[in-house]
UniProtKB/TrEMBL annotation:
It comes from the Bacteria. This is Uncharacterized protein.
Length: 164
């Protein structure tokens, strides 16, 4: 069931600060959010490759990941989401970006919130999205696709024909 979060948004209109309250609904992530998450994860990996000190810290945290060269490794996504506090300390912009993607709330709106409110948003994202279950499902679908492609390639070799 979606979680509703009320956020106060401060804007400057003609030199005067105006505060409005806006309601946001946190739901299961959409395909678009997932795609954005993959791009953000790739960017984080590139940053890690360039920062050896930070990479060493993250490597210790994510020591269970077996395929470090796979830029879209589902395990890394799972660990990134579950290690939000590490990102918040080491890579605050990326942590905000990930939370923005997963919550559907603009990063600038999040940056203007009190820390406890941002943590409420984070908690709602975690409650609404069973990240481990999502990653397991994506892996399963990708494995089925790979098996189908391998079978089709095998049949092409055996029969010498291509299928539609």
């Amino acid at each position: 069931m979606p979680t509703n979060i009320s956020l106060k948004i401060k804007e400057n209109h003609g030199g005067e600060e105006v505060v409005t309250t806006r309601q946001f609904t946190i739901e299961d992530i959409s395909l678009d959010q997932f795609n954005q998450l993959m791009v953000a994860t790739k960017d984080i990996i590139h940053q890690l490759k360039d920062d050896h000190a930070l990479k060493a810290v993250i490597d210790n945290i994510f020591s269970g990941i077996e395929d470090e060269n796979n830029e879209l490794a589902m395990d890394l996504v799972n660990h990134l989401v579950n290690s939000f506090e590490t990102l918040a300390v080491s890579m605050p912009e990326q942590a905000t970006r990930l939370l923005s993607i997963l919550s559907g709330i603009d990063a600038n709106v999040l940056k203007g919130q009190k820390l406890m409110t941002v943590l409420d948003v984070y908690d709602a994202v975690i409650e609404e999205n069973d990240v481990e279950r999502l990653m397991t499902r994506v892996k399963k679908s990708l494995a089925l696709t790979a098996a189908k492609i391998n079978f089709q390639n095998f049949m092409k070799k055996v029969t010498g024909k291509t299928s539609a």
